[in-house]
Amino acid sequence: MTTFPKFSRRRVLGGALAAASLGQPFLQLHAQAWRGRDPFTLGVASGCPRPDGMVLWTRLAPDPLQPVGGMGDAPVDVAWEVAEDERFRRIVQRGTVRATAELAHSVRVELQGLSPARFYWYRFTAGDARSPVGRSRTAPAEDDTATPARFAFASCQQFEQGFYAAYRDMAAQPLDLVIHLGDYIYESSWGKRLVRKHPGGIPVDLPGFRSRHALYKTDPDLQAAHAAHPWLVTWDDHEVANDYTDDVSPRTVDPEEFLAMRAAAYQAWFEHMPVPMRMRPRGPAMPIHGRYRFGQMLDVLLMDGRQYRSHHACLLKRSASPLTDCADRLAPGRSYFGMAQEAWLAQELQQPPTRWTVVAQQTLMAEADRKTGPEHGYWMDGWDGYAVARARLLDALAADPRRNPLVISGDVHAFFAAELKREPDGKAVATEFVGGSITSEGPSLSNVANLLAKNPHLRYGRGDVRGYALMSLDARGCTVDFRAVDDVKLADSPVNRIVRFSVEPGAPGVHVEST
């Protein structure tokens, strides 16, 4: 069993304050105006773990809500160190990387040469300022058959609608990984009983998206979760615009105008995430899907459900609301992931399987008839708008039962546990868990009750609480905990498990273990 070293959240959050005390505010101000101020206001992060390394990230931003973060145009050399202990007595790698205004003085270090399945600590230094300390963990070696996996997955963290107590809880958990499934930021303001505000309006350009990402990154509990664990990140729609598909947005009708906005949004996303330089966007295009293997225990297939997908079917007035069915919804050429990404996924699913395969993607995959009464109605922005593409994916997952497929999802602001079937009365071929939302308001009790009543393969649903999910995997089975915040409007709210599920190897399905 993996032993997780104690990680000091106080040390992480106090690092920036300590760094500020190292500044010399009256020296060299003519050369670099940021000197004497803490440039590490957005914390540190790591991501994309491999057996021999990971990506380390920070961004220099003494005035984080300003478009350029208060850094000016000059490049800055940033030193980094990686150690085997929190006190940095056993430093194993160090170096220097240049932060430039072109990438908003973001910093990423792509580590190699580390040992598999172990913890490392890291930090950055710019001028006289030192960053908080972060902790990361390498993946197990590819031939490792014994090391279990435990990770959290989360999505939908509308900044105004609540505090990030869920991330405070997540930072304290013994985890190998965090997977974020999208809606990391929100472009628009909405909701009830807002506890804080988005300054400015809806972002449409690079300065606007940079400021919005920086705002979210200033939250101390989000910073703590990033500093405590490596992350895998994908996006959904609100990182750019609600319900967009490829080059079409309900808000921005002109595709050329929208793609310019998408390019700015992708650029800002890249600048604020612990992802490798190979993902750097080229205009409105940015490849983020990939496979991440954790020994012989787990394959994570991280998917992009926005950039390449077919446009919505059956739409009236450019709305993705539930509608009566139409022939276009069942057209075989429609794709949720886009045909090229579908082909990549099919190829990955033909590789020798690990004990568990997790498809990490954006929204509820199970069919969800949403209308009340006998009439059927489907939400066209979800998988029901791409029914044939879903059937292709389920066929691929069912082709090798040794794969033990699991699907993890976000987007719908509710917890769900579902059995994925190729036919309504058929056997389950995979098990799906939707991990709620960190803060974003959920569906009403009546809406969730209707979904459960009309869709018996949805075995559990709850939309009145906010939170995230924990998944633990070993040779004996899979367990999933849904953890919910008592009151998302309170920064110090307790967080507790509301239900636990289990899945047995070779037997997809939802089993409630405890509540």
From TrEMBL:
Pfam families with a match to the protein in the record: PhoD, PhoD_N
InterPro entries: Metallo-depent_PP-like (IPR029052), PhoD-like_MPP (IPR018946), PhoD-like_sf (IPR038607), PhoD_N (IPR032093), Phospholipid_Metab_Enz (IPR052900), TAT_signal (IPR006311)
Domain Phospholipase D N-terminal: from-to ranges: 42-138
Residue intervals of the PhoD-like phosphatase metallophosphatase domain: 151-482
SUPFAM superfamilies per UniProt: Metallo-dependent phosphatases
Descriptive protein name: Alkaline phosphatase D family protein
